[in-house]
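Pipeline run #58 for the internal structure catalog. This entry was flagged by the ingest filter as a single-chain record with no existing model, so it goes straight to prediction. Upstream metadata was stripped on purpose; only the residue string is passed forward. Reviewer on rotation: M.T. Logging verbosity set to normal.
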Amino acid sequence: MTETPPTFPRVPWLRPSHLVAAGVLALFGAGAFAIVSVTRKMTEPEPPTHEIVLRDRAAVITAVRDLARLETVSYHVERVVDLRDRQQRLFGLVQSEDAILLVAAGDVTAGIDFAELRDGDITFEEPSGRVTIVLPPTRIFTTAVDNERTYVHTRRTGILAERNEELETAARREAQRSIEQAARESDALVRARTNAEQTIRMLLRATGHDDVVITWREE
């Protein structure tokens, strides 16, 4: 006995033309979704890319100065600069500020400048062989902020405040000033004098002058 395959009831309203129409609608919907997705990606703002370009410019030497300095001490100083630009509006009724906290590091060098020696500051006595030297006062030669170790810790601009574009520059100037001031308030100049005396005595002894008298000229 041969089995008859099962038959399903025909749906009177489902025709081949309906299936074709459904397929066309499905394809149209997928295409529309793809177009909307691509359009959205094209219209959404993308994060900007940054490229720092350095244009080579010719350097111009404006001055040349011969130096005769003996650097005898170097200090490394770290400072925190808290600088605020306080702003007032509406006749002082509204107050706000632009603030920066700069962590700064710098180096200070000090010593003596032999260019300040005067005639008669170095004398040699015969037959004792004594050398008498009058040295100029110790100076702070350079104060340099170390850009590799200096950074902005925080920068806060109030809602009603204008951002001061010169605030970081002012903070770096203050950092340089305070670093030099810290070196002056320490024993930098005293240590520079002590090291200078030791260096000069060592150099003169190397030339056979053991009797050396060193004095310092006051400002």
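catalog note: The chain is about 30% helix and 30% strand.
catalog note: The longest strand covers residues 69-89.
status: ready for reviewer M.T.
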